[in-house]
Amino acid sequence: MKLWKNGVFHTMKHENDLKYQMATNNGFIVGFDQDIEDFEFDEIIDLNQAHVYPGFVDAHLHLMGYGQKLSRPNLKNLNNKNQVLQVLKTEFNNAPFFVEGYFECGITKTDLNLISTSYPIMIRHNDYHSLTVNDYVLTMANIKSLTGILTEEEAQNAMNFFPKHTNLDLDHMLEKSIRSLYQYGITGGHSDDLFYFNGFKETLGSFDRVLAKMPFRAHLLVHHNVLDDY
């Protein structure tokens, strides 16, 4: 049993309902303050006056998608073409290359072709509705474009030609996502992921593996396109 002392626990029953020490056993709260004075504890944790709230629940997120974003190079703080190209050249490693967070600054397929025409290169725009791709992608997707800038359905179609993730990739992305959310106090969420990656079974399998070792109240939404698999 653990004692969490010297903290300010907000129960959320109402604004002024505060507790100052808490006992837990195997992850469950068993009591507060005077109700736990006679308990014996295996571990005592001093919170140093920290404020503690119940775990937050995100009403709509994409756990796997968030982890994927965290796992890829990101251009979110760059809006200069030369800086963007330098990052792309540095990060490219003679392998399929997908970059997030691009703000439009004039990059076209011509620039990407100078980096590689032997591997797919995709730069996802910050609006999440557009991509800039190289000629390798355009050829694979049978799309004609003078600039390599694709939007909406064309962009979605092009992404189908990027190599799919391995099961180990899915696990790592989900772990990274949950670990990041822990830092914001988010311990649960309603997540829509079961259609967008490797299909229903492989994606659900990743959730089963990761949630067995990283507690998270994941309420998984079933996309209409995977109802039969469900």
Describe the structure.
This protein is an alpha/beta fold. The protein folds into 3 domains: 2-53, Urease, subunit C, domain 1, CATH 2.30.40; 58-66 and 165-226; 97-159, Diaminopimelate Epimerase, Chain A, domain 1. Helices cover 31% and strands 25% of the residues. It contains 7 helices and 14 strands. It has helices at 63-71, 81-91, 109-115, 135-141, 152-159, 167-183, 200-211; strands at residues 2-5, 8-10, 18-19, 22-25, 28-32, 43-46, 51-52, 56-61, 97-102, 121-125, 130-133, 149-151, 186-191, 217-220. The strands form 4 sheets. A 4-stranded mixed sheet has the order 5-4-1-6, with no helix packed on it. The chain has a 4-stranded mixed sheet with strand order 9-10-11-12. Strands 3-2-7 form a 3-stranded mixed sheet, with no helix packed on it. Helix 1 (63-71) crosses helix 6 (167-183) and helix 6 packs across helix 7 (200-211). The protein is elongated. It starts with a strand and ends in a 10-residue tail after the last strand.
State the gist of this model.
The chain is an alpha/beta fold. Helix content is 31%, strand content 25%.
Overall strand count: 14
Q: Please, how many helices?
A: 7
User: Low-confidence segments, ≥5 residues, pLDDT <50?
Assistant: none
Overall mean pLDDT stands at 96
Provide the number of structural domains: 3
Span from first to last CA? 39 Å
Order of helices and strands: EEEEEEEEHHEHEEHEHHEHE
Strand order of the largest sheet: 5-4-1-6
Structural class: alpha/beta
Radius of gyration: 23 Å
Outline = elongated
Strand fraction band? 25-35%
Helix content: 25-40%
Largest sheet: 4 strands, mixed
